[in-house]
Write a structure and sequence with these properties.
single chain; alpha+beta; four-stranded antiparallel beta sheet; two-stranded antiparallel ribbon; 4 helices; 32% helix; 15% strand
């Protein structure tokens, strides 16, 4: 059984509208290892912003296709084993806050606009 979310429906609708205009359609994704959000096209290929334009990344992970900062075979997340992956997830401070019921409060107090530079 598969369920289509509102987000999936929106992506489908926007993709169809872009195709009618003969325009490229990308959706933004936040990766597990790549430091910046990146773009995915209709074929699933990743692109990044480089010099104010959409460009192919230096490389892509052979397993998850996430962009790599330099040429290589696998991203940092895919290169670790299941024990290391579980340990990394368990040590995530946001997961720790969530386990104590504090994540919603933390996110509500998170700055919404640009941060003031440290002086």
């Amino acid at each position: 059984m598969s369920f289509e979310t509102d987000s999936d429906k929106t992506k489908t609708t926007l993709g169809e509208a872009a195709a009618k205009q003969e325009a490229e359609f990308y959706h933004e994704k936040i990766g597990r290892s790549f430091p910046m959000p990146y773009l995915i096209d209709g074929s699933g290929a990743a692109s990044v912003f480089s010099n104010e334009e959409i460009a192919a990344p230096e490389g892509a992970c052979e397993e998850c296709r996430e962009p790599l900062k330099s040429k290589g075979k696998r991203c940092a997340w895919c290169a670790i084993d299941d024990v290391q992956r579980t340990n990394a997830a368990n040590n995530n401070p946001l997961r720790m806050l969530d386990s104590y019921g504090l994540l919603d409060e933390y996110m509500a107090s998170f700055p919404r606009g640009p941060r003031v530079p440290y002086k």
